[in-house]
Specification:
Blueprint: E1 7-13, E2 15-17, E3 20-25, H1 27-33, E4 41-47, E5 50-61, E6 67-70, H2 73-79, E7 86-93, H3 107-114, H4 117-125, H5 128-139, H6 144-158, E8 163-165, E9 168-170
Antiparallel strand pairs: 1-7, 2-3, 3-6, 4-5, 4-7, 5-6, 8-9
Helix pairs in contact: 4-6
């Protein structure tokens, strides 16, 4: 793994939040990686020493100082694990992370956003990193059901309704 602030190794059990498998990272564990960090934290991840090359991901703040470390299919498949399994986790700050190009806005998001003035205004007000995070998430959705479900939830929170989307609490469209 690349050199970062510090490498964190610990044992945990894979949990599920909605449909998303994750590992909870405590405040003290997160501080080992990057003290005082309160936003999505770019990390390199391996579970049970797999995959061979650590995968880039973000630890997402839970709002109470802890983080959700979501486990994508690549990592879970490589490690041969699923929800409920005890695992060995290796996490390290991704010092090579650069805020690169965004995924393009899919038409199935662009069109409904145009039709919702409040959501469009709040989308424009989001930070570039938050927009990038949403577009990256949308780019990996496979089924039309997942796209529809996530689009409805994003438009709801962008319209100003309080709710949760992408492991965040949204209030007043942000």
């Amino acid at each position: 793994m690349a050199t970062g602030k510090a490498k964190l190794s610990f044992q945990a059990t894979i949990e599920i939040r909605g449909i998303n498998p994750f590992i909870r990272v405590s405040t003290s564990q997160a501080a080992t990686i990057m003290p005082g960090w309160r936003k999505p934290l770019p990390v390199l991840l391996r579970v049970n020493r797999k995959p061979e090359k650590a995968q880039r991901t973000n630890m997402m703040p839970a709002g109470d100082g802890t983080f959700y470390l979501y486990l994508n299919g690549i990592v879970r498949d490589a490690a041969g694990v699923s929800v409920g399994d005890p695992v060995s986790v290796e996490v390290e700050f991704d010092a090579a992370y650069r805020n690169g190009p965004q995924h393009p806005m899919p038409s199935w998001f662009r069109e409904p956003l145009k039709e919702n003035p409040q959501a469009r205004q709040n989308w424009k007000a989001l930070t570039p990193s938050r927009k990038k995070e949403v577009l990256r998430y949308f780019a990996q959705l496979k089924s039309s059901e997942a796209r529809d479900r996530n689009l409805r939830q994003l438009l709801k929170v962008l319209s100003g309704e309080p709710g949760r989307f992408m492991a965040r609490t949204w209030v007043n469209g942000a």
